[in-house]
Model the fold of this input.
Amino acid sequence: MNITFKKAEILKEHPEDSTLGFGTIFTDYMFNMDYSPETGWHKARIEPYGPIAMDPATMVLHYGQAIFEGLKAYRTDSGDVQLFRPKDNLKRLNKSGHMLCMPELDEAFLLKALKELIKVEKSWVPAATGTSLYIRPTIIATDPYIGLRSSNTYRLFIILSPVGAYYPEGFNPVKIWVTTEYVRAVRGGVGEAKTAGNYAASLYATELAHKDGYTQVMWLDGVELKYVEEVGSMNIFFVIGDELITPALNRSILAGVTRDSVIKLAGSWGLKVVERKISIDEIYAAHATGELKEVFGSGTAAVISPVGNIKYNGKEIIINNGQVGQLAAKLFHHLMDIQYGRANDEFNWIEPLQ
Ligand code: COI
Done:
């Protein structure tokens, strides 16, 4: 399939790297492609970034049939641009699409489209350490119909946003609030899909956490409200004794690409990495005996985010004296070194733009 290009009349001003936060600035162009049962995926095009006009009955607006991905492009010290594990994100996009009854995508074509778009927008990839170009591929259901079924037509779009740190805290410990009343996902649901509804379901409890002075919610399993699943927009890791433990993928947890990178990196450093069920009671017990050394989250947007405080059932524990842990810091710096091309890419995670 050909990718057509339409030139923008006016180009936006680029922000200073030092002013970048997360998710408010978008580049000049976007990629669009449509799906219909008759033509399959068609009309691949790079065109000026702009609004999507929609019939008010468009299905995504009513039933949330939407999936997305988050990945990043980095500028190396020599000025080149490279992507981190894009094939894994595109594979997960297809997996989410399958769960949301969407048509399959040609991952190799989408990677090509993504690279074409970033080549056009190369000047938007910031250079300062800690900054990157966040890439948001999204698919939405576009039939104008308000009966409940899966849509026949879809729009795929990719937008780009130069970003800095996700949390206002930067690379400093965040405060986590464990909810015993709300759940993000349950067994048999769509928790492992990157779908809009999972994020909508997280908003109410997150507001409550904010009101209590906490940054993010820690979700427990939706059946027994006992086992840790994930945290806000991240997967979660615990250092207990000499083990690095993360909840096993149980079909309601998102299989994070950064989660997988942490598991592989830490394993290659000789650490014992364990994926298993871990209850919130076990975490509190490990804290009481002094065995809980570190807690940190992982995610594309957040990278590695140390956790300084956890509050559960009204009782707060402070982890590692509220300081950034050694392992979190090592992982954060090493991951960034790989992403910016400063460390050996021993796992072949880097995808050059060319
Ligand atoms: C990401 O980490 O890329 C995500 O998609 C999480 C989102 C809430 C920013």
User: Anything to note?
Assistant: Residues 70, 233, 299-301 surround 2-OXO-4-methylpentanoic acid (CB under 6 Å). The domain at 4-163 is CATH 3.30.470.10 (D-amino Acid Aminotransferase; Chain A, domain 1). The CA atoms of residues 241 and 291 lie 5 Å apart.
